[in-house]
Amino acid sequence: MRLFGKTKKEQLSQRQEALALGLADRICGWQRRVSDRLNRMTAGFGRRTWLWLLGIVGISFGSYCAYLIWNAFN
Fold first, then answer.
1. Distance CA 44, CA 28 (A)
2. Residue 38: left if φ>0, alpha if ψ -120 to 50, beta else—which one?
3. What is the average pLDDT value for the chain, to the nearest integer?
4. pLDDT given for residue 1 in this prediction
5. How far is CA 40 from the centre of its chain?
6. pTM summary value
7. Mean pLDDT of 49-56
8. Which residues contact 34 (CB under 8 A, 6 or more apart)?
């Protein structure tokens, strides 16, 4: 039982390949700069602060998911 067929991979032209590589490099550079900045900002945080931040993020995402589920059935 095949629900999904295999997709054919089409070959990219040299220009498309170069454009994709340049775009990937820019995105990776941006991610690296953001992560370096965040690491500098949070370098002095202790274990207790990290646990509080993790708890706040978890509760926030959990609350938002519960909100979405609740509104899906109303």
1. 26
2. alpha
3. 92
4. 62
5. 20
6. 0.57
7. 96
8. none
Assigned token pair, 27: 């995105």
Structure tokens at 55: 């708890």
**Measured CA distances, 51 to 2, 26, 45, 61, 62 (Å):** 45, 33, 10, 15, 16
Please, what sign has the CA dihedral across residues 23, 25, 29, 31? positive
Average pLDDT over residues 23-29: 97
Cβ-based neighbours of 45, under 8 Å, separated by 6 or more? 53
Which backbone phi and psi does 70 adopt, to 5 degrees?
Answer: -60, -45
Give the helix ranges, DSSP H, for 3-46: 14-41
Please say whether the beta carbons of 42 and 34 come within 8 A. no
The enclosing H or E element of 71 equals helix 47-72
- Map out the domains of the chain as residue ranges: 13-43, 46-74
Give 20's pLDDT tier (boundaries 50, 70, 90). very high
